[in-house]
Design a protein that fits this description.
Length: 131
């Protein structure tokens, strides 16, 4: 929810475009709106589950994985722009998969394939500058 608000405020600084030609701010606004709607749905669903006590593990669940994933993502965002894109993305994806209990060889292979694919698609095909 907080991220969608941040994305909405930042994308409002970009031009919207015309009626038939969307500007650079159009797509981020749509993404922010979708994230916000999904966040509200998840929050309401969680509240209703706690109230009905269908799943008591929601309140006293194991938050370790969630915290590790959030910390890993925050570190990746903080090092964005520093170092090598392929290496940073590979390490991020590998750690993310280890936290989710993937087998190490599956984590290495899928992290390698995904980071190289992202680099080739965005860096070479779309000519996006990836730190």
């Amino acid at each position: 929810m907080i991220y969608s608000i941040f994305l909405m405020t930042e994308s409002s600084k970009l031009p919207r475009g015309m009626a038939n030609i969307p500007g650079p701010g159009f797509f981020p606004r749509i993404v922010a709106l979708v994230i916000m709607i999904l966040s509200v749905i998840l929050i309401l669903k969680g509240i209703f589950m706690i109230i009905k006590k269908r799943n008591p593990n929601v309140v006293r669940g194991n938050w370790t994985k969630s915290v590790l994933i959030i910390v890993t993502a925050l570190i990746y965002v903080l090092i964005w722009g520093n170092g090598n894109f392929l290496l940073n993305t590979f390490v991020f994806l590998f750690l993310f998969q280890l936290v989710t209990k993937a087998k190490w060889y599956t984590a290495i292979l899928s992290s390698l394939v995904l980071s190289v694919s992202i680099f080739l698609l965005f860096g070479k095909v779309f000519n996006v500058i990836l730190f």
